[in-house]
């Protein structure tokens, strides 16, 4: 999405990371990262302008805030059966798995299959382990593989030849961008966000942290 929409990478990554840390501290537990899959597909395939993407993100935030303040989010959580939430989780998992098998595992030939096999074995070995969940180890495995075989060290050096730190840049979306982002990006995304980011995350939190109220 950063590449497709021409976003400022430090602004996206630094602010997103800071919000994840703040959310984890606020709830006292690790919070799952929920990518906006529907928005991502539209942005990447249609090359949506960054202003519209900013507006769409703000529109989703406004809608979620209104649902929370009015209590409608609780009503939605009560009327949606647990099987629907589990179905969303299962469907997204199968979709991402099929994407990986079709486009990524096969791309590197036998090293790709070997990497997938090691990741699969790690998943089975650590499945259900609350102290050492498999996901961080698999991510580290992928990072190590990329650093060893995929990345050129020169690509980390800026064109100017000197490294530096870039702070996030502030941006104020226009209301026209918020409206366009709501219609083009937020509306397709909201059903997924309600089902996966809100209800499914609540179910996962209840399963893994039964002593905490979320």
Can you offer a commentary on this structure?
The protein is 71% helix and 0% strand. By secondary structure, the chain is mainly α. Helix 4 crosses helix 9, helix 6 (82-104) crosses helix 9 and helix 7 (110-126) packs antiparallel against helix 8 (134-149).
Q: Can I get a quick summary?
A:
By secondary structure, this protein is mostly helical.
Task: Tag the structure with descriptive keywords.
mainly alpha, 9 helices, 214 residues, single chain
Mean pLDDT: 84
Report the radius of gyration as a whole number of Å.
20 Å
Largest sheet: none
Helix fraction, binned, reads over 70%
* Number of discrete helical segments: 9
Shape: globular
Question: In percent terms, what proportion of residues is strand?
Answer: under 5%
Which stretches are low in confidence, meaning pLDDT under 50 for 5 or more residues running?
none
What is the CA–CA distance across the termini?
Answer: 30 Å
Order of helices and strands: HHHHHHHHH
Total beta-strand segments:
0
Question: Which class do the helix and strand fractions yield?
Answer: mainly alpha
